[in-house]
Amino acid sequence: MKDEIINRVANSKLITVDLEDYYPEGPRVLFDIKDWLFEGFVLREKDFRRQVSDFNWSQYQGFYVALTCSSDAIIPGWAYMLLSMHLEPFAKKIIVGDLETLEASIYQDILNQLDITEFKDKPIIIKGCSKKPVPQNAYIMLANKLKPHAKSIMYGEACSSVPLYKNK
After folding, report:
1. Contact 28, 103 (CB under 8 A)
2. 72 and 48 inside one domain
3. Which candidate, 28, 104, 46, 40, places its Cα nearest to that of 75?
4. Which of 39, 60, 108, 142 has the smallest set of CB atoms within 10 Å of its CB?
5. Does one domain contain both 34 and 46?
């Protein structure tokens, strides 16, 4: 069988890590408090607290929430803390920032919990090109977490990977 096609990639000891496999389901939302400010710029404590108290927070059940203010208003830290106190019983995660920062924070939590013992002294390919919004920071966090343990780290696909690190 000299014409037999051998899949060397499938037979290799390479381990592919696809960050998309760790993508947690759940809606992501940007919660902008601009509309709760007087003329979009001034936080009036009494009015703000009333709006927070009257708002139906349960609509964010199972959501990942990024709190922000899209106007140039100066928002005191306690305002975001107050919002998070009301969101906490419902939301999976709450941060101050944009949706990209939210995704990076979600992945940081996931990667902090990732058991990497199976990657010890193994050649690793970190798969690129995901269909889900995996943030660039997640790739960096994963590579840095694997570096002390992996034999080698590459990026891309097994058929066309870019070498990043080789343990000497």
Report:
1. yes
2. yes
3. 40
4. 39
5. yes
